[in-house]
Structure formats: C-alpha cells, structure tokens
Amino acid sequence: MKLALLFSGGKDSTFAGYLAKKYNHEISCLITIASKNKESYMFHTPSINQTKNQAKAMNIPIILLETKGEKEEELKDLEKAIKQAIKKYKIQGVITGAVESVYQSLRIQKICNKLKIECFNPLWQKNQIELLEDLIKNKFGIIITGVAAYPLNEKWLGRKIDKKFIKEIKELNKKYKINPAGEGGEFETLVLNCPLFKNKLNILNKKISGEKNTWNSEVNLK
Fold it and tell me: Within a domain: residue 127?
C-alpha cells in the first residue's frame, strides 16, 4: 500500500516508518508540519526543519508545511498536507508514530476517515522500554534534542539512546515517574541514522537554549 509517513524526525515516527516498510508497504512521501508554536499540542518542534536532510538521506520526497500551531486549528494544516500527498503521490493511507497520545491519534484518525484513507499506528500501546530496546537492536542512531521535566537538564542534550540511557531512564521512571519513551513531553529526539537512511547524518552545529529543567538544542545536520 502507498503510504505517507507523518514525520517529525524523532524516534517514534522514524521507527513507525521502518516497521511499515518491513511490512511491505511503500513510503511514497513524508509529511512534516513545522509549528511556530513550541507548545503545540500536535507537533514536535525541536530541529523540525532538519526533516529535509533526513528525507534526503532516505531518498523520499517530503511535504513540509508551516502552521501557527493554534490548538485544533493546526489540524487544518495537517489535513491540507495529507490532501497534497493524496493528489501528488496517490497515497492510500498515513503512518503515525503514536504510542500513547489519544489526543493525537484520535484527531489523525478523524482526518483519515474524512479523506477515506487508512491510518496505521504500528507503535500504538507498545511497551516503552521494549520500544527503546528495539531501536538499539535495529541500529537506530538517536540523540536527545529537548528536555522538559525534573530532574532532566541541559546535560541530557545530545545524549544517545543506548543501553546506559535505558538503564538511567528506568531509574528516573521509578523515582520521578518520568515516561521512559518521553511520551509526556519529558524529552524530544532526533534520528541521525537508521536502516531507512542511505547515509548517516552528522551534526554541523547546534544552538542550546533554556533554563532549569526545560532545554532545547536546535541542531543543523549535513
């Protein structure tokens, strides 16, 4: 089936695309919504413009649209992008990286129902420690680009998701109830390499901003 991947550049959407391809679906294009609102309810924001470089590494065309990020109104921009993908790439459905967010999954499903296309959520309700372990097992190179929860701080920016990361996040989950996969917005990620990429991406430069337990790293890739 010809599908569009709703793509943020982070671990979940990228892994969902990997699984869809493994199930013999064709990823005809990526859809990225760049929100001007960093507190967007729907869309990932750190280093979002780097999805263009990731798309190039995957050799997959990308539809990149900006949105003001106003609650509910931003869904109209997502619908517009999906309509473009239907017209230009003849997609029959979309892939999402939704794991636990009912807010996101219900709204995407509603758009798909309206447009009479399928909605695939290959990560839905997956055990989150298993998800992290599967990423390592399948050779995903992932870094942290944003944190927003105590006791996380700027020292976590740039960290790789590896066995040491999983061990520490398990401990933080027990002690502070931090979601192991960052599903509560505790942290954001960026994929630098994975089986979908033709070549590994490298960090050209980065700009760090934030305070206390909320930090972001805007990364440029090459």
Answer: no
For residue 184, the model assigns a pLDDT of 85
For the domain that residue 164 is a member of, what is the CATH number? 3.90.1490.10
Residue 98 backbone zone (phi > 0: left; psi -120 to 50: alpha; other: beta): beta
Which stretches of the chain are DSSP H helices? 11-22, 51-58, 74-89, 102-115, 128-137, 163-176
- Shared-domain flag, residues 102 and 176: no
**Does residue 48 lie in a domain region?**
yes
Q: Which residues form the domain of 145?
A: 140-221
pLDDT attached to residue 71: 85
Residues 6+ apart with CB under 8 A from 218: 46, 47, 145, 206, 207, 208, 209
128 lies in some domain: no
Q: Tell me the per-residue pLDDT of 33-54, one tens digit each, with 9 for 90 and over.
A: 999 887 776 886 778 989 999 9
Assess whether 12 and 42 both reside in one domain: yes
Q: How far is CA 120 from the centre of its chain?
A: 15
Gap between the Cα atoms of 46 and 140, Å rounded: 19
Tokens of 169: 């996040």
Chain mean position to CA 194:
13
H helices of 116-162, in order, are 128-137
Determine the number of helices (DSSP H) and then strands (DSSP E) in the chain.
6, 9
Domain assignment of residue 129, yes or no: no
Tokens of 113: 């129902």
Q: How far does Cα 164 stand from its chain's mean position? A: 22
pLDDT tens figures, 3-13: 999 999 999 99
* 217 strand-pairing partners: 208
